[in-house]
Amino acid sequence: MNTTTLSFEFFPPKTAEGMDNLRQTRAELAKFNPEFFSVTFGAGGSTRDRTMDTVLEIQQEGLQAAPHISCISSSKEEIRNLLQAYQAQGIKRLVALRGDVPSGEVSSGDFRYAMELVAFIRAETGQHFHIEVAAYPEFHPEARAPTADLLNLKRKVDAGADSAITQYFYNADAYFRFIEQCAANGINIPIVPGIMPIYNITQLARFSSVCGAEIPRWLKMRLEEYGDDMVSLRAFGIDVVSELCETLTAWGAPSLHFYTLNRSGVISNIIENIGE
Ligand code: FAD
Predict the structure, then answer these.
(1) Ligand 1 centroid distance, CA of 27 (Å)
(2) How far apart are CA 254 and CA 245, in angstroms?
(3) Which of 133, 199, 232, 273 could, after both became Cys, cross-link 156 (CB 3.0–4.6 A)?
(4) How is the chain split into domains, by residue range?
């Protein structure tokens, strides 16, 4: 069994069945002793109550829960109320994000960038929360330039972020170079790689086109070749992602954060492979 520190990300289910499924997923992943479970938040507060309910349920199980908060299209009052509610419930860690305006809508609200949210959380709640922010080894799709994106991370750190979780990537070199550039620019917080297991090429290509994570040509072509043979595709995906995780931990990545999509099977296989 490996000794890498782990965390797992969930989305808040919409149905009672989804909540039941997530309970099972959580029970299976809890055996890896994660540092925390995080729960995503729909931009503009669309999942506010579901995120809160999921987070509180995790916490009641005696596990550390970290709600995501995205600030785009939210007012300061809404974020203040949310922070107070989490503080009152004893939540100690947040993932602070800008979020994306749903297509066809125009951004409204009091925040433009995540850096403003981080500064607001610190101004309102001091050092109560450990604040995670997002980082992009292959750069955010809206970034004007790589250096501008890196400096944005620095602004988030200067505003009070304690650590960062990256967008997923399959090219470990992008992460290594990014960490070196961060260090050269005085960004010294832990930057934890976000790991996306491979379940399905169509879904992965859709996510990647939105978030700017590259699927390397060799990987895309190999995955496409499996066609409808999902069993072989997943087995290959487990090999590829296990190797990525091993490379990252051997290099010294501080921890691994898994985008679970509320599933545990493939991730359990990957974790069991690390350090074998
Ligand atoms: P920011 O750090 O604000 O950056 C956004 C863009 O603005 C970047 O291109 C940056 O370079 C640019 N920028 C920043 N400041 C300036 C400036 N002053 N002038 C010009 N450009 C600037 N989304 C959700 O809605 N809910 C979630 O729960 C969620 N969880 C996530 C978890 C992780 C680990 C990650 C990596 C992403 C997550 N996202 C989530 C997606 C995220 O909200 C999007 O990637 C969003 O587009 C950017 O959010 P950010 O916090 O990185 O924004």
Answers:
(1) 30
(2) 12
(3) 133
(4) 6-273
